[in-house]
Amino acid sequence: MSRKRAILRITLKSDLCVGSGYSYAGIIDSDVCYTQNGFPYILGRRIKGCLRDAAELINVKDIDSIFGIGGNNVSGSLMLGNAYLADIEPIDQELSAIKKSKSEYSKFATQQNILGLFTSVKAQTSIDKETGVADDTTLRYTRVINHYSPLDGKEMQFLAEVEFDCQVETMSNIVKALRHMGMDRNRGLGNVSCSLEKVQDIIRGVLPKVSENQGKVTFTYLMKNLQPLVMSGRSDVESDSFIRGQSVLGMLAHEYLGYEGAQSTDKAFQDIFVNGKAIFSDLNISRYDGDNIHIFAPSPMYISKLKITKKLINTAREEFVDKDSLEEAYKASAENRPKKIKNQFICCDDNGDVYFMEPEKDIVFHHSTRNPYDKGKLQEKPDGKEGILYSMEVLCEGQYFAGNITVEACYADIIRCLLKNASPRFGKSKSAQYGACELVKVCENTSSPKTEFKKGDKLLVTFESDAIFMNHSGYTTKREDVIKQLVNDLGISVVDNEQGKLYLETDVVYGYNTTWNLKKPSIPVIKAGSAIELCLAEDVALGKTNIGERCHEGFGRVSIQNFDTMPYIVKNATDNNQAEATQEACKPLLKKIMVAEIANILKGNAYTETRIQLNASTLGRVTLMLKESLAQRKLSSIEQLENFVDRVSSIKRDEERGRIQRFIKQFIFDNSKCKLDSKDKTEVEKYFAGIKYLDMSNKELSFALKCLKNALEPHEIQAHTYEEILLAMWGEYLMHILVYQKYLGKLQ
Predict the structure, then answer these.
(1) Cβ-proximal residues to 352 (8 Å cutoff; 6+ apart), any chain
(2) Rg of the chain on CA atoms, in Å
(3) Domain span holding position 486
(4) Mean pLDDT, to the nearest integer, of 43-67?
(5) Same domain as 517, residue 431
(6) Most exposed among 495, 537, 623, 699, judged by the fewest C-beta atoms under 10 Å?
(7) How many domains does the chain have?
(8) Burial of 513 (C-beta count, 10 Å sphere; 0-12/13-18/19+)
(9) Are residues 626 and 711 in the same domain?
């Protein structure tokens, strides 16, 4: 049976809370998952667990083959990603560009502002059955995803990518049976409708034949992770900051065996993935400008940041620099001492300026329930009630990672085919929520650039990936053994008595064998970023290469520079050529954000109004009139205002009625401003001229009003949408004033 790919569509039929495990003391007790831009999403693991419950409900056969068995070394056939909002990708991309640019919306399009449009907070408490009052310390706040979208008012929909091996009818029935998910399903939350769409077969075909081409080909390729990545690190809860070459090797080997007639005994398979005739470099964090791929490498240990002035210097060159000629900002001293740069990746441009990047990480929470079908786990209580809450460090989705594959030219067509048709997944938990990536771009090069070095030149060999070395006793990180193998692998001759500085730091590499379900032995390595200074005894041409053991898995990648030409001052580049962010797809969202921002500013202004001489009874009466006017939803904002003014006019006491009318004219709306020529002005424009709560002298409000107007389409401006939006705020603004006045009255 061929493997299939499809889209799972989840349509909300009520508010939904699929918990993230996070809480914020005193604010949110149970939170939902949301992206860095603030868009809510549903975790793949939660969906997979709910689908399994649905499959058991309708008595699907071979459930374990579809969903897997906990603790087993073979996962189920179902692979499921996170479910993200439908049609949100173009909006998300524009918002990311807006945040990086100097756009006027960058200060408003924050994560929490966007999240506030798509979610709401519900409060609940426990009631004492005997007294009928709330129990102490039981008040809880839960953030939920709203039933309806703030953009079009329709039911919110989430889409997730699915791969499976079972019958389409079987998977479709499981999906349709999923009706509830998340928290408080028995209290009105979590009603959903699910469907399986765009089902298609995954057809691999036949791999290209081995050619007779000579030489080597280097593929430089760029990946984007569509889902968070959990790359095995020092422990079960930590993640590496990059994708190791051995993970790329394993992924492409798995892809190779998926083609028709392909076997692990093929000579091509053995040469590429076993015998080392292809070198798979690590995939490091990278920058992509739409044209060029800029691959970053771990920051070298000799580049440091001064503690006080924050300037970058090359500590390897420090003793060769005339300190008197330096700017004060670059002078190292006891107070302004150099500090090592940690967890950063670096890229140098053609001008010698460097860019720094740090992969974005997050912590996610999961709850493991030890169900009876988890046969691979030790169970204290096999009743489904035992479980454990645990966290994992992940690489956030939406980042670019790039690297190289250098292969014998005769196998280039095979690598090209594998990259083109691959569905790359890396790291742990690839069957649900994690690991999915997409190939963005591939470049090819048949020659590797080399630099000429002369006899007597000092070389600085910098490790761009972890390196493994061995001596007669096994793995080693001793200085003598490392230098000996480095010199031997580079094929150079050095002057032994003129070895210079060493910047060596060791680390340990861990691994896991899924077939045996056991951890691999830990291996000591020379850590990426280390460097060794050598003096050449003869002329040589060198370029980037790999040294040490397991080079085909990306270990031992080194770059070589002439030590004497390296500067002491390292220029920290800033991207001043930031392109202007477009605002086409996200305009409706920006309009909603600005309306909410203006409402918040008006709310703050309402709390600064002076005390109004109205007693509590009159305030309560006016508040009731306002609520009754605003409750008439079928009326326009102008008609609601007129209705409210008519109600106030019905107050019999002249003094009380006059005071309220003067208050409305002073703070809300001035009728005298409406006496305009009806032939030249529309009704909306006439009323807009009478608004009193838009204080244009307030710079914050004035700027927000300008941004709102710029977010509107030309036809909306012509239709007076701008004026109608601001006219509609009078009721909420007045309500805040009345509530605040009532509060002030209680203080007296």
Answers:
(1) 567, 571
(2) 33
(3) 451-565
(4) 88
(5) no
(6) 699
(7) 4
(8) exposed
(9) yes
